[in-house]
Leucyl/phenylalanyl-tRNA--protein transferase
Amino acid sequence: MIAWLDPHDPFPDVEQALGAGTDAPGLLAASRDLSPERLLSAYRQGIFPWYSSGQPVLWWSTDPRMVLKPEAFKVSRTFRKTLRRVETDPDWAIRVDTDFHAVMRACASAYRPGQHGTWITDEIRTAYSALYLQGMAHTVEAWYQGERVGGLYGVALGRMFYGESMFAHRTDASKIALAALCAFLSKHGVAMIDCQQETEHLASLGASPIARAEFIDHVRRATALPGIEPWQFDKSVLSPWTRRYHE
């Protein structure tokens, strides 16, 4: 059994999450509460929400945990050439926090093979928009000829970033945004991006699984550090990737 949380109940210890071999490995608790305060408490403890419309809010702490170390982001020879074009072509731009709501809507409507519907419900959009207004959630967006063609959003606490979702309306557009984010975070001493769950796509970008205990230990230390100020950058941040590449 998992815990049901009333609005002021603390989260259970993550070791109580359902384990491997169960129907829902990593599932820890359920609630109706998705307040900004509840979300921030969750992130600081290595917990995240993931559920579908019509379900209660389901809280997870997976083991292992998929993370992307910014310097491990994979840049192939071909993608390096793409980033060089982005860097030099005035038709391309990287922008930050121009329209949080639009990015969330684009992520919600993005096609994902094998997935029906979206976990980015109206309730999720409301909660994360509140974090954005508090300066704790951000978007990174790839623009081409004045149009937003790709991007991502996530939560930033201290020197920790929690990636939530990406979208692309043009080839490699979300990956371009992620490249910019990784370069920016690496520059500011962020050692880890939380990717939550293990997928082949995330692995292809350089993410890898680590033990939950190691992840939570890092989260506790990273979220206690001062946050990044200002949270602002442009495509010049891509220069570390255009000067070298990772196979």
In short: The domain at 3-62 is CATH 3.30.70.3550 (Alpha-Beta Plaits).
